[in-house]
Amino acid sequence: KDWDDSAILLTPSLASQCGFSIKINQMGNAMIYASLQNCFAQNVGDKAFTTTLTLRLHGNRMAEDELYQVAETCQYAAWASREIVCDRNYMEVSVKRAAPDDYALPENPVQGTNPKFGDPRRAAEKQTIDAGFRITTIMFYIPVEKVMGVTEAQRSGYGIANTPSRLVLRSPKTTPETYTQNVAGVHMTVLKTSTVFEKKWLATQIDAAAACPILEGSVSFTPNTITWYLPRHIDPLISSGQLQLLEVHIGVDGQRLDPAEMAARQYSLSINDVHIIIQIPVGAVGGYFKSHVQDDHYHTSYTIEPMLELLWTEDSIHEDTRYKVLFPITTPLLSRPPQVIDNTVPEQRMFKVLLGPFGSDVALMNISFPYEVLSVADCIARGFTVLEHMSPNSSSKVFMLEVPFTDPVVSQTRDMGYTVYSLHLTFGLLVLPEFAPFSHPVYLEAKLVDIVPPSVSGGCDYQNFYVLVQYGTQGANFQTIVGKQLLTSDLAEQYSFMENGTHLSFAVPFSSPDVVFEAIESSSVKTRLDVALLNPETNKNIKEFSLACNFPSTLIECFPNGTMTALAVKLESVPSLNPGQLTLRDPTCGPSYSDDRYAYFVFTGNSCGTTRKFFPNMMLYANEISLPDELEKIRESNTEDPEYE
Ligand SMILES: *[C@@H]1O[C@H](CO)[C@@H](O)[C@H](O)[C@H]1NC(C)=O
Ligand SMILES: *[C@@H]1O[C@H](CO)[C@@H](O)[C@H](O)[C@H]1NC(C)=O
Ligand SMILES: *[C@@H]1O[C@H](CO)[C@@H](O)[C@H](O)[C@H]1NC(C)=O
Ligand SMILES: *[C@@H]1O[C@H](CO)[C@@H](O)[C@H](O)[C@H]1NC(C)=O
């Protein structure tokens, strides 16, 4: 669609003259407010009002402008005698013109019980203004009288219009014809007028006044609450002393709220003799925070646009006034240093930090570490977690960062059984849309107890190995391997296993299959016990321990009746030896008992190839245990022969 040539461009001055205002909210959305009786409204009998707007949205340089046409029709018939609207950029007053019935003269003008008819000026005001009457002049009371022709007034920015039953007068918020008046401590801009209609020699005039609060004296702030005071009795609008307040409504952004919604938002309304008081918590739903940067410090302001609608009647004149004020309020800048919440759990070996709250107009740009600055994308590529959390109930957000202890930006120091991890960083932030940068430094530190592995010690007596394991920092989080097998509960019982929360101990007899024989000496066996502690998760040994002991042992015995016995044990160095295949010199003399570790021979001085040697006071019998020749040949390449005497 093309831009309609007949369209009129709504400049700011035309907007205030004609009853339009615009508000851009924090999402960047424009809200356009139009008075029912705006200059361009199609008015059907003062009951239905239709306004049509063409909106032109500027595209960027590449795109065409976009045109939208919007039309809205509103029904409104419940007009009060006088309706006053205080909008952002204008004040408007609409007063009822007299109806034909009001021609009637007072029954007894002298008694004048009804002041409406007692005052000749008011009587004139009530005359019907038919087509023959023309508005000629407006008198402003500032409070001295100033007279202006209609055309001049319109040129000065005033909107003046007749509707079927009403006179509408609109004024920009401040003009030379308005003045400020302190009403119950609240400063108000006041417009007081009389509009003169003339028809030949007849003249009539209508009074119309509006008064709108300005911030001075209207609002007080604490860091948590906004309090807005509106005089209950707006003197410049009231002709008699008495008024009766019939209705009070609160709204936001021009929309009325019901009491339940007000309570949910924690707005409160109170009325005393002097003021109507609205309290709104800073941060409440309906308003929004805006971020600001001052000296690299973060500040916020909170903006909300409450509305008050009053309906009152003046007892003396039986005329009601509907009064509506839209009142944008912005708090002063509040210093809101962001909070750092350190959620690090050292055992997870990861720094976790939250920074906030910030308004939704803050963006995280980068993070500076001692030797580098990383953009958010760099951080993510590096394996850090960077997230933005919006709070569900308010328009605030927090930033979350996770940095693993293993990253080079984290420094480590050792301190008495602890490792201290520390991280210096600075968040680089930006307030949009102004692109105002600010930063917030953060120092994080986490301590982890050093992991001490369990330790093993041990000793022997004449028949057992004794093993003591002292737990490390991880407690009993290991499995014990004795020799080559896991220390199961069955085995633990055999080995008199004990445990007390800090230590475990067990005893292994030297003859146990878990013990290996390293060598045979004249009257002892050199043995070794291997113990390993295994991490069941990684299946890796945490600790390996070997204990070597010599156990005294009688391997050869001679009995008085001529019987001799010899025990052959398999050494660790000949793992493939089968003791059952060993024989004495006489290869037919095998062991009388054998298993995979032992061979036990029983023989006499004159059997199995035993030889004798004579010494002065003793006789030495000798024999030899070995593998028979043919077996030995097979084994020869592997190991030495065991040999016993
Ligand atoms: C938002 O909710 C949290 C917890 O639910 C509460 O602590 C906080 O005060 C609320 N904020 C507002 C602005 O209501
Ligand atoms: C990091 O961000 C801050 C805040 O927006 C900005 O001022 C600064 O220039 C950035 N630094 C780098 C190296 O991009
Ligand atoms: C556990 O046993 C070890 C070794 O026997 C001993 O030194 C320690 O005091 C005992 N601890 C407790 C709590 O009984
Ligand atoms: C010889 O004495 C030993 C030990 O007392 C015994 O075990 C063995 O049977 C005896 N041998 C004979 C042939 O009596």
Automatic annotation (TrEMBL):
InterPro entries: Ig-like_ZP, ZP-N, ZP_dom. PROSITE patterns: ZP_2. Signal peptide: none annotated. It comes from the Eukaryota. It holds the Pfam family ZP-N. Residues 557-645 form the ZP domain. This is ZP domain-containing protein.
